[in-house]
């Protein structure tokens, strides 16, 4: 059964950040060769606070095998305490469009390749579009619970 229709990963690079390092960190979060799999890495520029240019690097995984490979990778990188925390916070992490949001500490991933949940804005953003049918919140929460309890895509 399909649990997620797509996964979107993103990171913001402010002018004082090392954009190449942040982009490489984003690529390291994806257990696939983007070029071989023909998955685009988007680089958008936006005006931030005080008219500063911010890069927004984004990768969207839409094919089932890409999504499943990522979820399996994610489950392998997260410890049981983090999964339990996500389950405890599932209600607040799921929006009205049935997108489940997770943030991982940017510096810890860049320095040690360790995933640590964070509420900070200095993070790698992860959006999991839940494949709920019928398209209802309780169905989506059930899927999220199953995935983070079982630890598989």
What is the number of E strands? 5
Question: Low-confidence spans: pLDDT under 50, at least 5 residues?
Answer: none
Rough shape?
globular
Give the helix level as a range of percent: 40-55%
Name the assembly state. single chain
Question: Any idea of the CATH topology?
Answer: 50s Ribosomal Protein L5, Chain: A
Provide the number of structural domains: 1
- N-to-C span: 9 Å
3D architecture notes:
By secondary structure, the chain is an alpha+beta fold. It has a single domain (4-148), classed as Ribosomal protein L5 (50s Ribosomal Protein L5, Chain: A), CATH 3.30.1440. Helices cover 41% and strands 27% of the residues. It has 7 helices and 5 strands, in the order βααββαααβαβα. The protein has a 5-stranded antiparallel beta sheet. β2 (41-47) and β3 (53-61) form a beta hairpin. α4 packs antiparallel against α7 (137-150). The termini are close together.
Q: What's a concise summary of this model?
A:
The protein is built from 7 helices and 5 strands, in the order E-H-H-E-E-H-H-H-E-H-E-H.
List keywords for this structure.
about 40% helix, about 150 residues, alpha+beta, 50s Ribosomal Protein L5, Chain: A, 5 strands, five-stranded antiparallel β-sheet
List the helices and strands and how they pair.
Blueprint: E1 4-13, H1 19-28, H2 34-37, E2 41-47, E3 53-61, H3 64-77, H4 80-88, H5 90-93, E4 99-105, H6 106-112, E5 123-130, H7 137-150
Helix pairs in contact: 4-7
């Amino acid at each position: 059964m399909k649990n997620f229709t797509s996964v979107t990963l993103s990171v913001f690079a402010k002018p004082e950040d090392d954009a190449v390092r942040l982009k490489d960190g984003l690529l390291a979060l994806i257990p696939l060769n983007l070029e071989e799999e023909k998955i685009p890495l988007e680089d958008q520029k936006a005006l931030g606070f005080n008219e500063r240019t911010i890069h927004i690097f984004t990768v969207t995984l839409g094919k089932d095998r890409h999504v499943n490979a990522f979820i399996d990778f994610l489950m392998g990188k997260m410890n049981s305490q983090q999964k339990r925390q996500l389950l405890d916070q599932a209600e607040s992490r799921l929006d009205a469009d049935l997108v489940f949001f997770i943030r991982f500490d940017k510096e810890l991933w860049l320095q040690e390749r360790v995933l640590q949940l964070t509420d900070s804005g200095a993070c790698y953003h992860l959006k999991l579009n839940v494949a709920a049918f019928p398209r209802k919140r309780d169905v989506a929460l059930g899927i999220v619970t199953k995935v983070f309890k079982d630890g598989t895509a």
